[in-house]
Amino acid sequence: xxxxxxxxxxxxxxxMGGLKLTEEERKALKGAWLSEVREAGRPAQAVGKLFSTKSxxxxxxxxALGKIWCPVKGIRCxxxxxxxxxxxxxxxxxxxxxxTEGP
Length: 103
Description:
- This is DUF4283 domain-containing protein.
- The protein has four helices and three strands; from the N terminus they run ααβαββα.
- It has helices at residues 2-17, 23-34, 58-69, 94-101, and strands at residues 45-49, 75-81, 84-89.
């Protein structure tokens, strides 16, 4: 079973290696967190996808990822269906950390 997981991970890495952002997309991403300006007083948010055949658990991800991305105040996580999640960052810099450092 371990060989099957390793092979699947290698295949996924190979597929992801071909993904590239355009210069316009890079500028949009950088601008999204560099300004740290929030619209109408709202906290920063991002949508993430869990690449798994099993369904993710929003509360568990909020607890685990919140300790990494926003260790003081944490994050909120809302299940959007189809393993898509809306992350709300409860402290400044959390979104930047999530995007640059990943999970």
